[in-house]
Design a protein that fits this description.
alpha/beta, D-Maltodextrin-Binding Protein, domain 2, 2 domains, six-stranded mixed sheet, three-stranded antiparallel sheet, globular
């Protein structure tokens, strides 16, 4: 061996150098995949948490995708309207964060990219089952869930004690009795509903929980007829009207801030109120508590309303594959969901979210139980018209302009026209 080396040392050295140079040359010669710069445009509602989360996630994503850049369009509110205008103009963003109630209609209209083609179906087990239901249209995936929310009964424990009430109501009879006691013994309103024209959208959303808790439905199984004027729907609206007639809720004067300043005994409100409660600026920690919605009809669960925003890619997006890589990265990363959800009072759509210390602490278990009873709004193309008509009907009944039956019949007649003209 030594003899061979001594004789051939220059040859071996040359071969070693050449081999090394050859390997280096081959490495440099090996074709590297080069990516043209890509800018993803994102449409999202503006908030400090939105800006912080997207920029942090975008920065992390760009470390492995350095050719990808982001153009954020943060709108104050109503991004679904902005999105539809962009679609009509032929200038859709690459990614939109949008109310899940619009997913079916846009998918049916061929306006969303089918994410199943990119393997999105494999992600189903990552998310809460109810959130995953909202992303499907005819078995295909058209969105990824992101942030969710729901509502519960929120009550003033100080007013309860002054009225001699020991615990929150569990059913309709108890709710009425407790509200009456609060009004009679404290002089404050016993309960509050969103009963002003300025809050008709919130009233409509809130009313769905009353409709469902009475055993009613918004549409028939075929989803081509509105049926919320059923006996169950009329009974639900009559209960709201009766609260005003009994003098235990203010008429046409919704004051959400009034509850948090201690002027109302009870209200139905969302998880988005929890951050303010935690800040305790007005002493809310001392007197506000959270409880499940009361049962309205024996034998019918106390159904709640699912609020959920999903991430979608428009059919005309310039970079659908890159956009999907980013929304998969963003929506399956618990770190970014928590960063976005915690300060805004939202709930992660990922199953792992409920296991974190933050969401195990009071009052989040109350909202988790409510989420288990949540129902999904019917995501039909005519939903915007249905929501508007229903809200107008509710206001008409609450102000005494029409009876609950008359108001709902008028709205349903209009909705049937919208449903027939806007079938996918």
């Amino acid at each position: 061996m030594k003899k061979h080396i001594s004789i051939s040392v220059s040859t071996i050295m040359a071969a070693g150098v050449l081999g090394s140079l050859g390997a280096t040359a081959m490495a440099h010669a090996r074709p590297q995949k080069r990516h043209a710069p890509v800018t993803l445009s994102i449409l999202w509602t503006a908030s400090p948490a939105t800006r912080a989360t997207l920029r942090a996630a975008g920065g992390a994503f760009s470390k492995t995708h350095p050719w990808v850049h982001f153009a954020y369009n943060f709108v104050p509110s109503g991004q679904s309207t902005k999105f539809r205008l962009d679609l009509a103009a032929g200038t859709p963003p690459d990614i939109v964060h949008m109310d899940s109630v619009f997913t079916d209609a846009l998918a049916a209209g061929g306006q969303l990219f089918d994410l199943s083609k990119l393997g999105a179906g494999k992600l189903a087990q990552d998310y809460l089952p109810i959130t995953w239901k909202t992303v499907l249209y005819r078995g295909q995936v058209y969105s990824l869930p992101f942030d969710t929310n729901t509502i519960c009964l929120q009550y003033n424990v100080n007013l309860f004690h002054r009225a001699g009430i020991q615990q929150p109501p569990g059913n309709w009879t108890q709710l009425v009795a407790d509200a009456q006691k609060i009004k009679q013994k404290t002089g404050d309103w016993g309960y509050q509903i969103p009963s002003s024209p300025q809050s008709s959208g919130w009233l409509q959303y809130n009313f769905l929980t009353w409709l469902w808790r009475e055993g009613g439905h918004v549409l028939n199984p075929a989803r081509n007829k509105a049926v919320y004027n059923s006996p169950a729907g009329v009974a639900a609206l009559q209960k709201l009207v009766d609260l005003g007639n009994r003098g235990i809720v203010p008429k046409d004067a919704y004051d959400e801030g009034g509850f948090f300043s201690g002027k109302f005994g009870m209200t139905d409100d969302g998880s988005w109120q929890v951050p303010n409660w935690k800040k305790n600026i007005g002493g809310e920690h001392k007197f506000i508590r959270f409880a499940p919605l009361p049962v309205l009809k024996k034998g019918v669960p106390a159904y709640d309303d699912l609020g959920l925003y999903n991430l979608s890619i428009p059919k005309g997006a310039a970079h659908p594959r890159t956009a999907y890589a980013f929304i998969q990265f963003l929506s399956t990363n618990l770190k970014y969901q928590l960063q976005y959800d915690e300060p805004q009072g939202f709930i992660p759509s990922l199953r792992a979210g409920a296991k974190t210390a933050f969401y195990r602490a009071y009052p989040w278990p109350v909202f988790e139980k409510e989420l288990a009873l949540a129902k999904i709004r019917p995501a039909v193309p005519a939903w915007p018209e249905i929501a508007t008509d229903m809200g107008n009907a509710l206001q008409a009944a609450l102000t005494g302009m029409q009876s609950p039956r008359q108001a709902l019949n008028t709205a349903v007649k209009r909705d049937d026209g919208a449903l027939s003209s806007r079938q996918p």
